[in-house]
Specification:
Blueprint (H helix, E strand, L loop, with lengths): L1 E2 L4 E2 L11 E2 L6 E2 L14 H11 L4 E4 L6 H9 L4 E4 L3 H15 L2 E6 L4 H13 L4 E7 L22 H7 L5 E4 L5 H15 L3 E6 L26 H16 L5 E4 L9 H11 L3 E3 L14 E4 L9 H6 L4 E4 L20 E5 L2 E4 L4 E3 L3 H9 L7 H9 L17 H11 L4 E5 L3 H7 L8 E4 L8 H12 L4 E7 H7 L3 H6 L5 E6 L4 H6 L12 H9 L5 E6 L2 H12 L6 E7 L7 H14 L7
Parallel strand pairs: 2-3, 5-6, 5-7, 7-8, 8-10, 9-10, 11-12, 11-14, 12-13, 14-15, 18-19, 18-20, 20-21, 21-23, 22-23
Antiparallel strand pairs: 1-4, 15-16, 16-17
GO biological process, one term: response to decreased oxygen levels
Family: Belongs to the TPP enzyme family.
EC number: 4.1.1.1
Amino acid sequence: MDFKVGSLDTPKPSNGDVGSLATNQVSTLKTSASSTQLCSAEATLGRHLARRLVQVGVSDVFAVPGDFNLTLLDDLIAEPGLKLIGCCNELNAGYAADGYARSRGVAACAVTFTVGGLSILNAIAGAYSENLPIICIVGGPNSNDYGTNRILHHTIGLPDFSQELRCFRTVTCYQAIVNNLEDAHEQIDTAISTALKESKPVYISVSCNLSAIPHPTFSREPVPFCLASKLSNSLGLEAAVDAAAEFLNKAVKPVMVAGPKLRVSKACTAFLELADACGYPVAVMPSAKGLMKETHPHFIGTYWGAVSTAFCAEIVESADAYIFAGPIFNDYSSVGYSLLLKKEKAIIVQPDRVVIANGPAFGCVLMKDFLPALAKKLKRNTTAYENYHRIYVPEGLPLQCDPKEPLRVNILFKHIQKMLSGDSAVIAETGDSWFNCQKLKLPEGCGYEFQMQYGSIGWSVGATLGYAQAAKDKRVIACIGDGSFQVTAQDISTMLRCEQNPIIFLINNGGYTIEVEIHDGPYNVIKNWNYTALVDSIHNGDGKCWTTKVQCEEELVEAIETATEVKKDCLCFIEIVVHKDDTSKELLEWGSRVSSANSRPPNPQ
């Protein structure tokens, strides 16, 4: 029997593992009726946890060792099919798990108590905001120390050492403190299954003295999870579809917009089915880029208010009806709350809820059920797309560079566009890369990831490590600003140890450019590093690595040719030196609007 667990339903290739990306089918976990008896050395808590990780599709655990988790790491290493990836710090281990979960559908990381847990906390918070199921495992204190009033190392020096647990409660959907063997099996299984069901991180603390002890509850190979699928209320679904169809069929020029919650709803295929059926123009919110096939004949680009793809905002905002599937409207995605949308024109489809204009609302209606059912009820209407086709003017090309002219960012991205294929994936760091990468046209099958909701600078280095480890069929192209790189640069080392071959474009413009456009100050200028020399020193002759510094278009063309041909099996680090004021026009517009939103005066009391 097949059980569908942990899969991500997006228009990208499937590798058949649990939690993998799928096209027309979800990934499945193969099960058998028998449950194998285990020898005592394998019938331990640590080995049970390791077997569960493998079962749900995790083949790599990102870890930093510490004295409280060392025995547990031994158990993880001993499990066939599970590889331990040692990271340079806990923050990067968390970011790597984030990137891994985006590709594989589930991820795991392992750190030590409190000093490791609080270090990884920021990355887990980001994963929570992005609805990524990460199993965060912490090696905890000896079980005998609970309730003793003892002061332990790696804590803040109080007899109550629950600070770490209290912190994780706000950024995980389940917390398990495993400090006795009697209920360890139940606690671990509940935590992992909850992560998959809720698509959120979970926290598992395992006492350091329990991991290697055999126990009867672990004496058999664990039976794979059978996670009950959520079901729509059939009457609510029917009513929601009828109301939405009536609303949209009355409209003259309706449009569709994909939001980031398509992924957690496993509704990407359903959204595509609706787009094929209705004939509406299709846009994506910026954080949903990569979830909708950009080669679709009615795809019109990114809807991002004043910084949208050319002609996209005009079509969306002039529509008399729009259906948003899985949107998140925050201050960043709304460009400082400046979207010209009207609630009475909108159908908002959330993962389990549908709201039609100012009402009615329908609960217990799953997006993945609603969209294909709606597709069967809508009249085909291509009016808005025909309007788009009439006003559309192809975008111009950047001005030609003079020989040896200092390189411009728009020239860089013109050449990155040519590199993309279905065998590549783009990781865009927080900053101006958000806006430049948003303009890339993704070929079918090309991956695309960035962290818009949380927006933590430095995320992309660890995410590149994790994504590349999970999606070995793709070559990752990462676009990282110099300020962000300085936060998390160390795990270039781990990429080399794992024999990964990403192409990293380090955009050196001397500071935090995105912050400059929101509010400038001397704090946005950073110390310039010799970035290629730094990566060379990390390489230290061990592994496959190639670096170069580029200052003009001729050098860029040569560097890309080398990276994609002679050095295609190497980690390629290309430092791009550009002027400090060379930014996208979209960042200039977005920055001024976000600045205005941030500086609103207090409301009168």
